[in-house]
UniProtKB/TrEMBL annotation, chains A, B:
InterPro entries referenced in this protein's UniProt entry, alphabetically: cNMP-bd_dom, cNMP-bd_dom_sf, Env_Response_Regulators, HTH_CRP, RmlC-like_jellyroll, WH-like_DNA-bd_sf, WH_DNA-bd_sf
Domain of life: Bacteria
A Pfam entry, by short name: cNMP_binding
Species name: Sphingomonas agrestis
SUPFAM superfamilies the UniProt entry points to: cAMP-binding domain-like, Winged helix' DNA-binding domain
Protein name, entry field: Crp/Fnr family transcriptional regulator
Amino acid sequence: MIEKHLMKLRIRDAISAEEEAALAAAAGDVVRYAADQTFVTAGQELGNSTLLLEGLICRYKDLSDGQRQITALHVPGDFPDLHSFTLKYLDHNIMALTPCTVVQFPHARLQSITEQHPHLTRMLWFMTNLDAAIHREWEVSLGRRSALERTAHLLCELHVRLSVVGLASDREYALPITQTDLAECLGLTSVHVNRVLKDLRERGLVEFRGGKVVIGDLAELRRAGEFDPAYLYLERRPR
Amino acid sequence: MIEKHLMKLRIRDAISAEEEAALAAAAGDVVRYAADQTFVTAGQELGNSTLLLEGLICRYKDLSDGQRQITALHVPGDFPDLHSFTLKYLDHNIMALTPCTVVQFPHARLQSITEQHPHLTRMLWFMTNLDAAIHREWEVSLGRRSALERTAHLLCELHVRLSVVGLASDREYALPITQTDLAECLGLTSVHVNRVLKDLRERGLVEFRGGKVVIGDLAELRRAGEFDPAYLYLERRPR
DNA sequence: CGTCGCTTTGACACCTCTCAAGGGGGGTGG
DNA sequence: CCACCCCCCTTGAGAGGTGTCAAAGCGACG
């Protein structure tokens, strides 16, 4: 069940048959979540980490005035709360943005992996470090890029990340979330996201409509967002 | 040499004598960096990770138009590039903000730790996950908080983090960086940071002057920044 | 005592937010 | 099968927070 989701790891390093078996053995229950279901709450003690098989997941924090910031978006093959293995409880909530299928990995079994499979452990550690790299790029977007740049950048990032797991073609991918969800990723209001999307569409760069992203001009879209995928660590060595 | 810097880890979990010895044995050269010295460049292959003993370090990314975003600030006891152990090269630069003393940990020795000390490995993994938690809180600040809230929040965060390593009293701590550095953390211009600091000072909340932060009213400062230290994982269990 | 980097302040511009209203599409119940 | 409703998208007008540009003050250091 998890075989095809190891693709993401294999890009970066070899996984032995033994390691693959150990991971498969660590897998626990398969669970489904409904759209908009918050299945991990900040502060809650956790005994499992979750591998996303199907659907989209976000991690978010709410502010006292009702504002929300989404701090991460997850696509199939991601481990949205692998970090809860060492943290024990989280500082944020986790929600399914669409109906999702996940596999749970009991922390006790992950602990066995750390005791018996150091190389696999380092690969899991790598995955949480990759998540942090994406956080950093989002910090740059939120801190320094304009609304248009930020939006273009995020659409480029998702294009790459979904391509890696075979869920995007050269020109399009499914993104069945609302403009409000996007706004909460981008630190903008949904009203403004709407205007930015209109602008991107009218310039022929990209169209987001009906839960689908259609890229009109990938080179221009990347330029508009100053997108450089280096931070996604798709290369084993720096260029 | 590293004993007192393990404080940060001991808050969260017990370190055995054997683990402490293993860590000490992994320590390599002690190195000094001058203020403003960038000692790790994005894309550079790395063979060491760095434990900060003295001084302040930042991690940052530059944009093509000359803007800069600082994505993390590090205080003594932090491991600013521990993640390079699994990533091999980094997506960002690392710079000393003040004169610094660090100890380098060769990745080969860290790899031995992952092979012989699973519990210690999990604690190191925890440290990188804590960095990611701080990244997330910064995303919230950058995305959703006003300039004043953001600034107050950062000053509160540093107060807590420096207190943990004995470098802050109840009311003050040294922060020998410029307003421009602060602005680059906060996603603001230095001109605006200056106005915000004036506002905070006139309200009696906090004063930042001459490289020193003096807190006038901690409770009010925390309220102004909506600061909740939960994301710093100072408690082993959720409240 | 001059220089240089950092801080401070003012005036004005502009990006994004707020508030408000209307449009469209899909699901549900009568 | 139709009508209604709700959620989401779209658009406009005006407000406000932060950026830009510019200049002067200040302090450390040589």
